[in-house]
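Weekly modeling sync, notes
Attendees: S.R. (lead), two postdocs, one rotation student

Agenda item 3: backlog of single-chain predictions. S.R. asked that every request posted to the team notebook include the full sequence so nobody has to chase files. The rotation student volunteered to paste the first one in as an example of the format we agreed on. Action items at the bottom.

Example entry:
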Amino acid sequence: MHYGLSGAAWSPDGEVIVSAADWGLGFFHARTRTLLFRHTESPQIRAIAWSSRGLLALRPGPDHIRFLRTSGRVPIREEIQSGGVVVAASPGRLTWSPDGQVLAVWGSSGLRFLDGETLAELPAQVSGCTAFGFFPGGHAVAVGLEDNRVLLLDPLEHGPVAGETQGR
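Predicted structure, as returned to the notebook:
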């Protein structure tokens, strides 16, 4: 297929890949690569992430996130009313914690977090973030900072897990 991709994500069961493109969302069977479902979106999705709890987070613009509930391999069941979650400016990146409890939103104003249940913004925020990754269990995130420090924090507890570490 030839179209501009802006994001891709795996379904929680690993059977479906969703891609965000100029025309909308395409849901493909992972093994056969056949198109299962097409969902037209406007404007173009800039970032996408599928949680282990079945929530699909879409970033259609620079300042908000839409949520869609999924059910197994049935791609879209309903849109979640999120109250128009406002996020950092810039295309950025969306990443769910492995347990689906936290959505990390990385944009030009830093790293911000949303609660995976309520979809409300959590108080924990990090400026000067250059990279981040969730602990496999999901309860902590390592954040690389511009000044070569690494910060470990628990977004749900709104604070550091341990002290900062120097590194490169």
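Discussion: group reviewed the output briefly. DSSP finds no helices and 17 strands in the chain.
Action items: rotation student to repeat for the remaining queue; S.R. to check formatting next week.
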